[in-house]
Amino acid sequence: MPARGLRSGAGRALREAFDVNLHSIAPIRGLITAVPVVAVFATGLAAGDPRAAITMAVGANLLAIVSLVAAPKLPLRLALLDAAALGVSVVLGTLSASTPWLHTLLLVPLCFVAGMAVLFGQTQAVLGSQAIVAYVVLGRFSGSLPTALNLGLLVTLGSMIEVAALLVLRLPPTLRYQRAMVADALNALSAYATTPAEESAMSVLVSIDAAQRVLSPLSLFGRSDDRDLRSIIDQVRRSRLDFTTLAGLRTRLAEIDPTLLPEIHDALGAVAEGATRLAVAVRRPDEPVAWRESERRLRQLIDDLRARLAAGDLSRDVDAIMSQVLAHLEALGGQLRSMGNLVARESLDAPRGVWRLDVRWGGLARPHLRENLALVRDNLTRESVALRHAVRLVVAVLVATGLAHLLDLPRGYWVAFAVAVILKPDYSTLLRRGVGRVVGTALGASLAAIVVSELHPSYALSAVLIGVVATLAYSAWPASFSVAIGLVTSLVLILLSVSSTNSVGTALDRLIDVVLGAVISAATYVLWPSSPAHDVRQSEVSLFNALARYLDEVLRFCFGETDDVSAISASSRVAHFRFAAAEAAVARSLEEPAATRADPQVQRGLLVSGLRILRATHALRFSAERGERVAATPALTSLRATLVDALNDLDKAVTLSHFATPREAYRHALSDLTGERAPESLTSNLDEIVNATNTATHLMPVGT
After folding, report:
1. Does domain 176-349 have CATH number 2.70.70.10?
2. The domain 532-699: what is its CATH number?
3. Where does the pLDDT of residue 417 fall: very low under 50, low under 70, confident under 90, or very high at 90 and above?
4. Count of CB atoms within 10 A of residue 28's CB?
5. For residue 72, cis peptide bond before it (omega within 30 degrees of 0)
6. What's the CA gap between 578 and 545, in Å, rounded?
7. Rounded CA gap, 65 and 79, in Å?
8. Is the pLDDT reported for residue 52 higher than 90?
9. Longest distance between any two alpha carbons in the chain, whole Å
10. Model's pTM, two decimal places?
11. Per-residue pLDDT tens for 504-549?
12. Selection from 123, 134, 113, 125 nearest residue 59 by Cα
């Protein structure tokens, strides 16, 4: 990477390190998460065993961090897996510590598995990093089998107490947090309603999913007073689909008759205003609900548009598009009324707060495990980002371990610890997290050194300090990574001060080791970087494969070949997330070194083409749900198969089985699309999909 680009990236990461979002501070969550850490620490000290106190508190702290990373909901199976993995890592580390070559050798499979865990998500990747941390930090002292089992059980016990506390204490007395998340989703929907047509809907989908997670049975443990909030989110999700489809229709209308756009924008503004008012009502259930004026205004605007359409002054193409626009606006009006009634009812029920426990287990089905194994096998290639990260992690941890021994660092295990938590599979995250952790460690180590050296805390005062610092750290986690890591550093150093007298030396060692670990992590990545072009290409191919499946399901529905609405919904959701993944991959690639970066114009063009296909497929789906369907013919079946094949094989030099191009198949089916019984919306939307598919075919390099 050129020096200027490196300085720019480091400067941006440094600015982000000092950025604190005060609105995201969560004191209640922080306090609840900190309680078990303090409890196990105080219990160990009261029993006269500082080592046990530290070990259990570290285990609870590591589990607490996983819960914060996975917020708003940590799956129970992952929490238990983390607790077990920490214990096993400590046992293996303690048993092998007396044989240095074996202790180092065992790091190889451990680091490789931890590196490959990035395939399954951020939470799983953190679990892998924590297993390394437990091995190199808690398992660094040699001991007999009973000693190893004792340490392993202590760290697992601390983790399990944290899990148990989160299961019980995270139940709030009211649904205030859940209502806040639903209100955020409504506000996101309101903001999306009037954004430019080319904007992605992913921010709304993220807000919807966040609200749905905190309203899930496992998150609420079977509370019976959340049904109306769940129903509101269901309506928000459907409204988001209508807005997405309208965005595509607005784009097409702008090309042929933009004079209608201001009136459509006013109608969307009425929906946005209503959603905003509903968000206020959800957040503050004791205040009057004032959304009906927005609904009446929307109804009047729809009537005005319908009268203009009935006048017959519009062209056939505009008439076809406007018919779809009005149908979606009518649907939004119905959804607004439904949400308003649900909000009013939920506001009446808000004070009740009745709940019951209903913890369910899942996620370990055999098909799911087979899919995970297949995913790992598919990524055992030199180009795989996950494999490269796993290899880099093995090398970097081994280098860190060897360098710590070579330099005879007093607490050299922190170098390997720093590598495990800093090294990431992509450059931008590595840079941001690395800078953030170094800054946070410097501040946190300084704070701990000052507090311990000035106060010389007793066991009782140490427990109080742990409670205060842990609460602050966990509360600040969603607001600032650097601040949270700094406070976690202070937390760990205060824990260690119970069995150490040189607090300043310990803090300085921690800072030096973390800086050294950050340098090793950055150097390892620069020497063998991941290929962002390969990552982007994989995500784009996955996107168009998902679009092919969604389009196939929708066209079968349009042609009367299936009525499986659940399959359509599932494929729509997959397509949305694949689009978000492709969009994120392109964004990450722009921050990579220029030598490994793909052409950004081509990548953005492919994203735009994918978004056009997604929106037009939405429009087809909703038209079919309103009864605008046509019987399948050989020509229409060939058109469907040609489009699906073209999207599935976008990156391959293959001959399509039906027609040479989607455009040729479209022309062949045109007579069936323009017949008396064929809805005009079907013709215009298929034309849009064919155009977008052809554009993507020209942009996508073949054979990469």
Report:
1. no
2. 1.20.58
3. very high
4. 13
5. yes
6. 9
7. 11
8. yes
9. 90
10. 0.68
11. 777 888 889 999 999 999 999 888 887 667 777 888 888 999 999 9
12. 134
